[in-house]
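Form 7-S
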Amino acid sequence: MILECDIGNTRCKWRLLEDGQCIERGVLDTVGEDFQGLPVNAGIQRVRVACVAGTAVESRLQLWARQYLALDCEFARTEAESSGLKNSYSRPEAMGVDRWLAALAAYRACRCAVLVIDLGSALTAEAVDGGGQHLGGYIIPGAELMQKALLAGTEQVHFDQGLPASLALGRSTTEAVNHGTAVALVGAVKQLIEQAGQYLPVGFNIVLTGGGAGIVRPYLPEAVEWRQDLVLDGLGYLLP
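Output:
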């Protein structure tokens, strides 16, 4: 069995694989978490990890793995080239490994031009051409970051977070902020798709992932593919 972890700035998404199939999954709060919610199973032989939360969090996970599994973690790192995907960054290590893994998994799945959109704490987009060349991407604040910016930058705007996504006009401050966030994200994703059309051939694939993707999915074309575990899928290519 293989334990895989996708550790972001706010949560740790994990799954347990047996013979390449997911048999268990879950989500932990990254902030202040000592990873006690991860599975402790004698059959786990490897721990593959994508982490963008910093070296301190990596060290905490490493301590957990040694204590409970007697294993060392395998941490994915962004590379200049991985499994046919070539990085556009002059300093590949400066690119978030979650973005690299998502692009890698999407490209390897289709072997064609693809736009990868990931909605997490940030909204990111990566364009890859049909030959596996990563052309570049975009990073935009996600829903929670947008709303935190409002709270931090205004004195009169007070609202509750977490309402269902809607593009309707808000009839309270809470609705106005939550619906406005949805409008901003949907508009951003549609614009990202339009921009990608300037760099990618007609008919390029679009793959959507991330915990915040539910906000925009109802407003996108049916051709947009949803992949729940795209970053985790990339670990299998980078750390086979």
